[in-house]
Amino acid sequence: MAIDLTQMKAGERGRVVDIQGGWGLSRRLDDLGIRIGTEVVKVSSQIMRGPVTVRAGNTQVAIGFGMASRVIVEQTE
Amino acid sequence: MREVLLMGNPNVGKSVVFTRLTGVNVISSNYPGTTVEFSKGYMRIGKEKLEVIDVPGTYSLDPNSKAEEIAVAMLKESIARQNGIVVSIVDATNLERNLNLTLQLLKKNIPVIVDLNFWDETRHLGISIDVRELEKILSVPVVPTCAVTGEGIKELVDRLLEAKAMTYDYPEEEKWHEIGKIIERVQKVSHHHHTFLERLADASIRPSTGIPIALGVVYIAFKLIRFIGEGLIGYVFEPIFEKLWAPLMMKLSPILGSGGFIHDILIGKLFAGKIDFGQSFGILTTGLFVPFAVVLPYVFAFYLVLGFLEDSGYLPRLGVLADKMMHQVGLHGLGIISMMLGLGCNVPGVLATRIMETRRERFISATLMAIAVPCMAQVAMIVGLVGKYGAKALMLVFGTLFLVWLTIGFLMNRLLKGESPEIFIEIPPYRIPYFGALAKKLWMRVKGFLKEAIPFVLLGVFIVNILYSLKIIDFLGKLSGPVIRNLLGLPSGAVAALLVGFLRKDVAIGMLVPLGLGLKQIVIASVVLAMYFPCAATFAVLVKELGVKDMVKSAAIMIFSAILVGGLLNLVL
User: Fold this and answer.
1) What is the model's pTM?
2) Rounded CA gap, B162 and B101, in Å?
3) Apex CA B74: angle with CA B72 and CA B76, to 5°?
């Protein structure tokens, strides 16, 4: 099932299947090693639609809620 | 002279490698026309002296930010000069991601050597990298290092001149495929148990545990700053001034005629035949005592603690946790880092706002900082003056400023057009800071403070004396009396402090001491002095950063809100 990063729960894994919207977001994610096909682990989310933290490999990234909701993942276990 | 460019992603320990390679002779400067800072130093290989440049961190050679643009520009210039060597510093625990930049560098016409830093951490993380194989694939030297302990640095220096140019080519659109192939050949990852620092890292970014940790960290940080600051004042600086400097000045006093114009400017007034460093207001007495014995200890303590927080990797986490609050004032989480810098000194704080993406954010954060973030020099003087009345009185001053910060930020966020961009940042793992790099940074900052502050403090004290002896203060006191007395409830003498506050806020607060104010008046005066206008140095960078038009707007907000808040405090307290 495809959901976005904000819908994942802490500890869950997923594979990125789509990055919606601008080229800018894809490029910034690419810099940190996150692109379509990358496996990510959700680390945390903050209360009241705050930023989402995910880990890809040994890199951790904090992403604002709006941007995170544009990163679509397919849950893996 | 040949030059060595240290390049790498952010958070790969570049400055620690820099500190290891270079000696004491380090210059920190801005890239021409910008406020992006980089450091320069020198190293020796055999008889040759080389210049070492710590290039701002960048994820790739297609820049996504101002700092990255500068990094790319510096590389281009060096390639044009044809005398450069690049040390591509790679986080060995993040090889795949980091190789992107390395491969991009290998495509440029400049010799490259690869430094696999954080080598020790790969073991804890169950990562094993075949260095020989990687060297064969890239056909440039690859040296594993652990810059914090110094391991591998000697080999890096020994092999630096083996660096080679143009060794690896591949089509750009194939880059991740290419990197994947390399990774498959050189890296093996086995399962590992989470280390304590990793568990702490996770705990400090989850809201349920992260917020209590953040409150604890901030509380301990301020306790520590106060403890170190007070300790240095009580055991080092005050004794030096009281036991050594005061007797010397008392000998000088009769030579200068025990009174009169010159005496008053240099030594100031005597109280019961003695020097009172807080009140005498001579250039050689109060003028030296304020920057060295009151402010410097706190500045030192502040930058020591801040440097530790920066180098341990805690600050981005604080930014993530504070993101929601910062959005209320129109900024995102990382805005809290420039605010913290501003707490040291508003000048670097305002300069740090340069990294923000929009003009709106820069205006909001610079204005908020100038109004409601007192610098350490002010804080130290306020603590000295108000602290006598206990922690509650201090809370009153700083609590008011925090409320003002929130309210004005909230209003600006509502009233200014546009919206605030979202946070996007790498959260580095926790690392034990390297003492050498901490000490170097602390020394640069303290030196910067002394160079900036002392001339202005001395000038401030000088001007105070001139203003008093020419009776200008009396005149201005009468002129502004209605506002100062009726609205703010302060004696007209306070106008002198407000006047000098344009130059240095710490000197201005010092001028409140002889006025014999009550607690209520001291609180009002401290708050108004913090808010009404920035000091000369901050004003200069604000004009440069915001432009004249926005600076006028910003100043209008400052003056209006200072009078409003001062008046309200006068009514309420």
Assistant:
1) 0.92
2) 20
3) 70
The confidence score (pLDDT) of residue B516 equals 87
Please check whether residue B530 is in contact with residue B512, taking contact to mean a CB–CB distance below 8 angstroms. Answer: no
pLDDT at residue B499 in the model? 87
* CATH superfamily placement of domain B3-193: P-loop containing nucleotide triphosphate hydrolases (3.40.50.300)
Are B56 and B36 within 8 A, CB to CB?
Answer: yes
Q: Across the A/B interface, how many CB contacts are shorter than 8 Å?
A: 91
Contacts of A24 in chain B (CB under 8 A): 64
**pLDDT tens-digit readout, B2-22:** 999 999 999 999 999 999 999
Q: Taking a contact as any Cβ pair under 8 Å apart, which residues of chain A between 29 and 68 contact chain B? A: 31-33, 35, 43-51, 53, 57-67
Domain with CATH 3.40.50.300 in chain B: 3-193
pLDDT at B35: 61
pLDDT, residue B471, reads: 83
| Regions of chain B short of the pLDDT cut 50 | none
Q: What is residue A52's predicted lDDT score, i.e. its pLDDT?
A: 97
Residue B565 near chain A (CB below 8 Å): no
C-alpha distances (whole Å) from B273 to each of B55, B246, B250, B254, B280 are: 57, 12, 9, 11, 11
pLDDT, position B109:
85
Q: Torsion angle of alpha carbons B118, B20, B67, B7, nearest 10°?
A: -60
pLDDT of residue B147: 93
Give the Cβ contact number of residue B80 at 10 Å.
10
Q: How many whole angstroms separate alpha carbon B341 and alpha carbon B66?
A: 19
Contacts of A58 in chain B (CB under 8 A): 93-94, 125, 429
Residues of B in contact with A35 (CB under 8 A): 176
Task: Tell me the shortest Cα–Cα distance from A65 to chain B, in angstroms.
Answer: 8
Residue A63 and residue B423: Cβ atoms within 8 Å? yes
Out of B97, B207, B324, name the one closest to residue A59 (CB). B97
Asked: is A2-76 a CATH 1.10.10.10 domain? The reply is: no
Q: Which residues of chain A have pLDDT under 70?
A: none
- Gyration radius of chain B over CA positions: 27
Instruction: Decide if B263 contacts B256 (C-beta within 8 A).
Output: yes
Distance, CA of B349 to CA of B326 (rounded, Å): 16
CB contact under 8 A, A62 and B205: yes
Q: What is the pLDDT of residue B303?
A: 95
* CA–CA gap between residue B323 and residue B336 (Å, rounded): 8
Q: For residue range B525-544, what is the model confidence (pLDDT) as tens digits? A: 999 999 999 999 999 999 98
- Residues pairing with A59 in the sheet: A56
